[in-house]
Predict the 3D structure of the following.
Amino acid sequence: MSLYANPTKSSPPSPYLPSACRIEEALRPTAKEKFFRLAPHDPHILNYSPGQFFMVGLPGYGEAPISITSGPDEGCIELCIRAVGNVTNAIHRLEKGDTLWVRGPFGRGFDVEGMAGKDLVFVAGGIGIAPMRSLVKAVIKRGGFGRLTLLYGAKGPEEILYGDEFEGWRAKGVDVRITIDRPSPGWKGYVGVVTTLIPPLDIDEGRTLAVVLGPPVLYKFVIWGLRHKGIKDDDMLLSLERRMKCGLGKCGHCQINCVYVCQEGPVFRLSELKGLPEAI
Amino acid sequence: MEENAQYLYITDRGFKALVKGLLKERRVYGTVRKDGFPAFKEISGAEEIELVQTPTHLSAKEFLFPQREVLLKFDIKDNTHEAVVEAGDQAIIGLHPCDIRAIGLMDRVFSCGAQDVNYLARRGRTILIGSDCMPDRYCFCKSLGDTDVDSGFDIFLHRLKTGFIARTGTEVGADLIRKFAGPRMPSPRELTELEGLRTRREGSFTATLEAPPEALPGIYAMSDESPVWERIGSICYGCGSCNNVCPTCYCFDVRDEVRANLNDGERVRTWDGCTLDDFARVSGGHDFRKTRAARLKHRFNRKFRYLSGRFDSLFCVGCGRCSRACLVRINIAEVTNELIRESYKK
């Protein structure tokens, strides 16, 4: 039995075919990151939720998984991309008016409705602030949450992303606390890794959800700190970074034990990662 | 099992006519002896095929999931992408039951969720013709359930002293047999000969697993901390041969290849292997499976545990190819037996 008889006529479109996006704005907020606002030709791909990602590519270079930094329903896609490899370095050479190619959105993002009514503690390390911004904007837009606290750690003042937006978030009730890893001339804020901001927090552990986004090294220490504050594994949400080649649950690169991060994740409750020793 | 399968007798000449008929309309891959070893190869005449009973070293997966295949063509200057589906009519002759089961698993992988049009188009235009096997010392499909298949093929051939018993698994297969092979009903003596062949095969397995297949996911789940992983990790070359030869290893890499004019090129996918060094490394340099032991554990678990929930099946078909190909003689059945014995002690 053929899976389908006539592939040229009845087969679905190739899931590997990317969709073109015009770059409406290209900014360089730090030496390592570039920020893009994209207008997609296909409006369907604007239907994303915070925490999801796109496979972002350039012909001749390939694709890389990039999380979304814009809030939902903003009519555009914003990406904050750090130049770390072949693909992302090539993307950094793009400017306003150029075309970027995306597939997606992929994966399971944050269930903002399901989080309503809770106190939220957002913990972001480094580039983790990019997907966190999408969630913070969604939360502010919806309203109906308890206390909102953002802990954000960057290596130095020159690496802080979205510094010009934090005042606006504070005005909407988000307690934004920023720390840098090492002392720096002129810096008057916190110094130390982001985990140092956890112990002083006043947390009502029964009604608090913690969201942790950052590089793989961050998780162990932040989880340890949050557990000490009485937050249960069921109340910790985190997003896992993995190598990905398809976004479709096929290429195998993002597999952790039984789960495909691109399908069941990238956002997980910590309790869901129990029994997955390679997850963190 | 017998409801769908129809038993027919065809002569040697009928088989040749069938191959000849297939060759008129499609590419045909069949088993041959290449430097003395059984292998699949594209053939141009029926006389080239030898239905070798021992397993081929390489599986037939390359005909459905090529080692390198084009997914897209792009033109950088024109800023265009075009989807490419490379599929033509083809037939594979000489698949053993393990190969057929493996193709069934690949079908599930590539049709689950997002439809992988590249695989599925090719699969939809492929005729599968199975043939009898005889186990060597690495084969252990018997321990995983069944040494035979009753579906998943268009035609299955059982070699008799003269002629074949043909079973048809699809309408397409039945039509082909009728059209080319001049079938008749088999005589009782021919059916008895078939039963004799089956009995002989059943009694020929030397490699066996010491636990039933349904117990294997649980046994692997108990074996995360087993010293076995460190031991086999310490001798593994990390060469990826096991991934290459496995009929159910489907992991792939995707990369862009640009032509010398630096303008047009192709996005291609190539086989990848979870036992290779950088398989799980992310851009910041963090590697989620740093050691060969961790990578082997991942591969073995994929075959016996990780995918069983997702696809409702073990992903090892017992063909023994990875053991046969391993340069340092890591044997999947022996490793599994060690884990089984350890689990009994717990």
Remarks:
- The first strand of chain B starts at residue 6 and ends at 10.
- Residues 215 and 253 of chain B are 33 Å apart (CA to CA).
- Residues 6-202 of chain B form one domain.
- The mean pLDDT of chain B is 93.
